[in-house]
């Protein structure tokens, strides 16, 4: 029998923090993605498999039916747009925030006060555009795919919009957080057609996840 439910996860914190929720739903992933090179992992339930995809690809897989459901950060979901995705649950895992950070010697407050045009480097262009527009601050957005922390240090940008969790990465690079844009956690996303067609299998799974979610603190 070919697997009938496909769950898309990214390796790392989302995979690790989803495992206890899967376990609570009676599903054990049978291989460790850090040890195996496999991209499709079997689980203790013959009709459920996990596919490992890049974090930013999770919404795309679920939107187009490459996976029936997936777990993705609210940051990634906003940038993707969320079209075609049913979002039944905030799983309250992989928590962090999206913030604006600058070099410790950059006077962000007066740059904003004086109406200067800010050069902002980020992977999160949709979130950054919306945030600065709402503040009435003019920005030139510079799209990056990795290590945003480097941008202010090299003169590429005045500020970055990035995820912050402990703040250690900013500190290690002499950057300071000057604005908190939004709190982030990961969501369960479900393909809308799959939800109708595989209702009998998916509903109990979503309900089990819902019961296992830790309340926000
Ligand atoms: O790493 P890769 O480029 O493959 O993909 P990705 O960065 O999209 O994936 P991954 O697995 O790193 O992150 C997946 C999701 O985890 C994100 O979309 C967030 O929703 C969530 N998350 C939670 C985080 C963090 N916390 C986090 N701290 N994602 C990234 N970070 C990074 C952050 O970008 C910064 O570089 O960690 C650094 C800051 O951490 P602190 O603790 O030093 O502040
Ligand atoms: Mg990462």
TrEMBL record:
Keywords: Amino-acid biosynthesis, ATP-binding, Cytoplasm, Glycosyltransferase, Histidine biosynthesis, Nucleotide-binding, Transferase
Assembly and binders: Heteromultimer composed of HisG and HisZ subunits.
Superkingdom as given in the UniProt entry: Bacteria
Chief localization: cytoplasm
EC number(s) recorded for this UniProt protein: 2.4.2.17
UniProt keyword Transport present: no
Domain notes: Lacks the C-terminal regulatory region which is replaced by HisZ.
Recorded catalytic activity of this chain's protein: 1-(5-phospho-beta-D-ribosyl)-ATP + diphosphate = 5-phospho-alpha-D-ribose 1-diphosphate + ATP
Amino-acid biosynthesis keyword on record: yes
Gene3D superfamilies: Periplasmic binding protein-like II
Protein name as catalogued: ATP phosphoribosyltransferase
Function: Catalyzes the condensation of ATP and 5-phosphoribose 1-diphosphate to form N'-(5'-phosphoribosyl)-ATP (PR-ATP). Has a crucial role in the pathway because the rate of histidine biosynthesis seems to be controlled primarily by regulation of HisG enzymatic activity.
Any single Gene Ontology cellular-component annotation: cytoplasm
Subcellular location: Cytoplasm
